[in-house]
Amino acid sequence: MLLRTIGARRHRLRYSSGAVSHPACALYEVALVETSGNPTGLQLVSSYQTHRVGDPMDLVALAQQVQKADDFVRANACNKLTVIAEQIRYLQEQARKVLEDAKKDADLHHAACNVVKKPGNMYYLYVRESGQRYFSILSPKGL
């Protein structure tokens, strides 16, 4: 039997666990804890707040707060995307410069040279009428 107290009355309920081999094992008594609005003398929930009829202006204020939150989230996302777009433009500019430098280095590396290049020496790049590029140690001022 299951004992349950509602108000000041006690009710007996039968509890069966299903397929049990012995009938004495199937029934037992349990005492349930009384429900109280003030357990241990403390009121956990304000009955005024839970039973009052809502003010329509509260709904308007709530809707305004939700709208402000949506606007803030949208502005925050827009600002972050703007920063990312600026970073992308900067990276594109850097990539363009890297490609230009690589092309210039490849052109210099493939230019003809009849002397042994040594670090620290000055070499001058010339282009013939045929389009051939070549290095020389003679400066254009000496020609």
Describe the overall structure.
The protein has three helices and five strands, in the order E-E-H-H-H-E-E-E. Residues 1-18 have low confidence and may be disordered. Strands 3-5-4 form a three-stranded mixed sheet, with helices on one face. A two-stranded antiparallel sheet has the order 1-2. It has helices spanning 23-26, 47-51, 56-110; strands at residues 2-6, 9-13, 112-113, 124-127, 133-136. Helices cover 45% and strands 14% of the residues. By secondary structure, it is an alpha+beta fold.
List keywords for this structure.
rod-shaped, alpha+beta, about 140 residues, 5 strands, disordered N terminus, about 45% helix, two-stranded antiparallel ribbon, single chain, 3-stranded mixed beta sheet
Q: In terms of topology, how is this protein built?
A:
Blueprint lengths: L1 E5 L2 E5 L9 H4 L20 H5 L4 H55 L1 E2 L10 E4 L5 E4 L7
Parallel strand pairs: 3-5
Antiparallel strand pairs: 1-2, 4-5
Tally of alpha and pi helices: 3
Overall, the morphology is rod-shaped
The portion of residues assigned to helices is 40-55%
> What are the segments in which pLDDT stays under 50 over at least 5 consecutive residues?
1-18
Give the DSSP E fraction (strand runs of 2 or more residues).
5-15%
Structural class: alpha+beta
Mean pLDDT: 77
What is the total tally of β strands? 5
Numbering strands along the chain, what is their spatial order in the largest sheet? 3-5-4
**Pattern of helices and strands:** EEHHHEEE
Largest sheet: 3 strands, mixed
Radius of gyration over all CA atoms, rounded: 44 Å
